Amino acid sequence: MFRNYLKVAIRTFIKSRVFSIINIAGLSIGISTCILISLYVLDELSFDRFHANADRIYRITEMLHLPKENRHQTLTSPPMAPALERNFPEVLKSVRFNFSSRTISYRENKFYDTKILYADSTFFQIFSFPMVEGNPDKALVEPYSVVLTEQAAKKYFGSEDPLNKIMALSDTLSLTVTGVIKDIPANSHIQFDAVMSRSTITHMYNNLVEDNWFNNGYMSYILLPENYDIKQLEAKIPAFLDKEMGNDRRDTGLWYDFILQPLPSIHLHSTSLFDISANGNIRYVYTFTVIAILVLLIACANYINLTTAKSVNRTKELGMRKVIGAKKKQIVVQLLGESFLITLLAFVVAVAIVSAALPAFNLLTGKLLSINVLVQPDVLAVIVGIFLMISLLAGGYPALVMSAVSPLKAMKDYGRRGNASSIIRKGLVVFQFTMSIILISSTILIFRQMDYMRTRNLGIRNDQVMQVDLPYHVQSKAGLIREELAKIPGVISSTVSNFTYTGGTSNVALLPEGAAENEVTSEASIAVDADFIPAFGIKVVAGRNFIKGSVADDTSAFIVNEHAVKAFQWGTPEQAIGKTLDWGLGKKGTVIGVVQDFNFKSLHREISPLIMHILPDWYSSISLHVSGDIPSIVKQVESKWASLDPENRFQYTFMDQDFDKLYKAEEQTRTIVGLLASLAILIACLGLFGLAAFIAEQRTKEIGIRKVLGSSAAGIIALMSKDFLKLLAISFVIAVPVAWYAGAEWLTGFAFRTEITWWIFAIAGISAATVALLTVSYQSIKASLMNPVKALRTE
């Protein structure tokens, strides 16, 4: 029986090879798209789940309460985590860590891109970073201990055994290698090359304040018991803070509560300030998943459409089978078997497409996905599920419809098309092009938003601005280095500051004039020099800029933006001049100038109050506005740097490129949605091509008669295109409100956003209609040029 089914399936495939190839092509594109997106989604969902205690680890985050707003941030104070561990038995362990920009070296091997972490000794007891050499319980206990990843160990020591070797920290301090761990997985939100004992910081800085609850600079994590209800601990924390920080902490105007964040949710759900790394976005995961499913459904709709259409030509065959004794169950099994065969062939092609496309997909998404992932149990389960769903979904309906036809009707009404099947086919075409128009509209909107962000006037010059990193140990010579670099031909202006788009800004507690003692706020602060404002083309709207060499300006002058004037209720910018500021880190002074608001953060966020002042200890980069032969200027700057600081590698970025990095996720989304929209249109057009060919075949006699009676080729083309245009019009009407709503929701993630205009949907509709008409026109023209005599004789 099975052999017979297989023979019939192969015979049917060969007989209708064009339709079979279209089905396989559409399904394979849909399946490969779904597999690629599934790999991406599974990787996003896997972040931090490799830790043995992943479901028991929580990150402590702060909800900072200010007089006029609340801010959620990841940085916490040094005493918080240990205090929780001491006071609550359910907190089994705690760990704190922060990052360092210092360099470590071994003999002549000095690498400046080593990412260093300072962590408590419990780091490896909480997180599962397997240790290859050393004792995880003791590796970070002693000061000046360092643990390297395998890759870092190989980079520094080559084939030598690194354990117990002595390394140099910033060329002045000695470090002992106490362990080597496996390389950090790509799906970890904590990335580092070396981890040093946090006790090292205590020895390096005697003035470290361990009990300062407002010195927020650490990432803190805790380990809880299995199946523990986190709400119990969260309910106890407020009273605990009242006891530790004083019952009047809420009266200070600057206080905070703690939120415990599950480790596996950080990558996709965290929107906190000062996060460790660029996180994913659960909205994009949902979006890509939905679109991938839609593309697959469009492919399935193609299969159903073409199979039910071609079923008209098989009713006589199936009728004969029933006459000679075939049962409905056997017919269903036969037709489902054909569906399974088509789907299997499509899967083989799809896997080949995935294998070929994976390198480009990894480049696009920044992932390290491998084709070997397909054989992992969870991924294999997804693939088998997709296979069964397609086979049953795409083959089930045609099988039920075709097997239900009575033998007598099948033999008598051979070739007659049923209204029900026609309605379903039209409905599937509407579904395909509705989804296609939505995807095209979404792509256009994303492109428009990205273009808006690139062309928006930020209020600050960021084109052709070269930012040179300033190592910690040369900050005291920042002014001298800047002056030397400014002499290079092509450098128009220069300044030194701690302002970068990728580095963010520091928020510092302050008390503005006019505020009550309990109205302390926390605002962004930038350390600048007297050349910062003119170098970046920032407009001064009231007062003046800093005066170079002025002792008063260096020690007690502030410049604020317009937003700060409004937030501090100082009236007009002119009225703000002379107001006093008590800056939280021991500096008091007077406002000497107000600048026009400019975007110093991502366009995802609103402009907020900004304080600028001269603070050399904070300088971290030299900004050079350059013009002319950029590669030549870069080489000259690098050469000059080598003579000024031969011990440290020259590192630089361009400010506009840093700005673009803030929207990497949106760039990826734009490209992926654009590709998926193109694939959706391609699959829909494949189905439309096959459907148009079938209709032309069914109407051969009608077309022949019309031509005999004088109908023109244009009339025939219009006749065959008219029905499809009606379906496209229906698709457009359905798609517009859905696309409008989806676009409006997506734009809410941006503080500064473009408008959704009518022409976006007009272009999407016209694009879909044009592609569809071009697809249908081929079959229409072919039918209109057919010899009517031949058409009538053939019929």
What is this structure, in a nutshell?
This protein has 795 residues and is an alpha+beta fold. The chain contains 26 helices and 24 strands.
Tell me the helix content. 40-55%
Tell me the overall shape: elongated
Average residue-wise pLDDT: 81
| Count of strand segments | 24
Cα-based radius of gyration, to the nearest Å: 34 Å
Distance between the termini: 35 Å
Number of helices: 26
Question: What's the main sheet like?
Answer: 13 strands, mixed
**Unreliable residue stretches:** none
Strand proportion: 15-25%
Instruction: State the secondary-structure class.
Output: alpha+beta
Overview of the molecule:
- By secondary structure, the chain is of the alpha+beta class.
- Helix content is 50%, strand content 17%.
- Strands 1, 2, 3, 4, 5, 6, 7, 8, 9, 10, 11, 12 and 13 form a 13-stranded mixed beta sheet that branches. The protein has a six-stranded mixed barrel with strand order 16-17-22-19-21-20. A four-stranded antiparallel beta sheet has the order 15-23-14-24.
- The mean pLDDT is 81.
Keywords:
single chain, 795 residues, alpha+beta, six-stranded mixed barrel
Protein topology:
Elements: H1 2-15, H2 17-45, E1 57-65, E2 70-73, H3 80-87, E3 93-100, E4 104-106, E5 109-111, E6 116-119, H4 123-126, E7 131-134, E8 145-149, H5 150-157, E9 166-169, E10 173-181, E11 194-197, H6 199-204, E12 219-223, H7 230-245, E13 255-262, H8 266-269, H9 282-310, H10 315-323, H11 328-365, H12 377-403, H13 407-412, H14 419-455, E14 465-469, H15 478-486, E15 491-497, E16 506-512, E17 521-528, H16 532-535, E18 540-543, H17 551-556, E19 557-561, H18 562-567, H19 573-576, E20 580-583, E21 587-595, E22 610-614, E23 621-626, H20 630-644, E24 652-654, H21 655-661, H22 664-698, H23 700-708, H24 713-747, H25 758-784, H26 788-794
Parallel strand pairs: 6-11, 8-10, 17-22, 19-21
Antiparallel strand pairs: 1-2, 1-12, 1-13, 3-6, 3-12, 4-5, 4-9, 7-10, 8-11, 9-10, 14-23, 14-24, 15-23, 16-17, 16-20, 18-21, 19-22, 20-21
Helix pairs in contact: 1-11, 2-9, 2-11, 2-12, 2-22, 9-12, 9-14, 9-22, 11-12, 14-22, 14-24, 14-25, 22-25, 23-26, 24-25
